[in-house]
Amino acid sequence: MDAEPAPSKEDFPEDVTDTRSHLNVVFIGHVDAGKSTIGGQILFLSGMVDERTIQKYEREAKEKNRESWYMAYIMDTNEEERAKGKTVEVGRASFETAKTRFTILDAPGHKNYVPNMISGASQADIGVLVISARKGEFETGFERGGQTREHAQLAKTLGVAKLLVVVNKMDDPSVGWDKERFDEIEKKMTPFLKSCGYNIKKDVQFLPISGLYGTNLKERMPTSVCSWWEGPCLFEALDSVEPPQRDATGPFRYWSVRINGGLDSVTFAVLRMPIIDRYKDMGTVVMGKIEAGSVRRGDNLVVMPNKAPVKVITIFRDADEVNQAKPGENLRVRLSGLEEDDISSGFVLSSSSNAIPAVLEFDAQLQVLELLDHKAIFTAGYKAVLHIHAVVEECEIMELMQQIDPKTKKPMKKKVLFVKGGAVVVVRIQVPAPICIEKFQDLPQMGRFTLRDEGKTVAIGKVIKLRQE
To answer: For the Tr-type G domain, which residue ranges apply (predicted)?
Structure first.
């Protein structure tokens, strides 16, 4: 049977109305480091929030005896977050420079909300790791069990390739823009970030700032404030990050088609947009980031894994309605043909002719981290919670297939029955319901994952084989 013809260039539309690159920025770090306050300042300084709104937030914060939290109110919009001064959900907002359009993802820092942080980081291109310079606060976040370590480790695992480390609260009386304190934090963080897999010279940059007063955010700070800093401000550092290479056709699928009576192989476009949320508004609206391929109004697509055919009615990018969108864009897409209740987070909006695989089992290469004290052995039967793109699902290790020598990177010959923390092992994983994933080599954003157990990250991994019936 003849396959569909190869697509033309028109099948991969680009957004011609705005040629600037788009980047997702996730703010991560220990609770109370100042992530939401920095996000609020960025929105104010970039003109996304007006002075009257800021004054309103100042009054609200003062009424709650939380004067210094008013900037965080821009990002923390629900009452629970404002009452506790802690981000619970992943806050979203947008700002732009002459060169780049940014989406801010304000991830919660509290250890109880790490799964929400994973959701934010899995969509990000750049990470801004916020460190508090205040005496005692950096040490609390960086010590064993602190969220600074776990967030940095997870960010690298989840594909956040570039990291800006902002040393916040440099204006605090206990610090006073002290260069020695800044250098001390950089010296302690550098070997740890290197151990996470970051290339310090290429991928990491340290910056001193004050989120509360907006110092060194949009404009370089004057020498009268900090005489020793000669580097860029945060906006400059963000603007200098090169956008990751994205393929407008996604992971290739090869099809044999009949051309002039003979068989030939061509590639066909693949759309992959993991759905992070959905709601009802004149139809069903899904939210997500395009990880591969392109989408345009009028496309006939499919939502996986339930194989539901849908049609694209409207595409929203931030507040704008657009006709088409390309990889890396955060979208709200209004669909027809499917009810809101039939969609869950982790489902994927996909090309109908090249639907994403839905599997119950897959093989993966795992780096086992520090295990729980009372579950110090990792073996077949181990159960954990799998986080892969927008999927959160219980899983079970069905088989340990091979152990990898960490030095040579080659499989070890001996049969492996169990491993301990620090081991690299190839395993077979099973989930109770079908999930949509790709092999890491085909689409890294949908093939890297973490395993968590009792609130702790116990392994990071990449999908190497899909087991489809």
So the answer is: 20-246
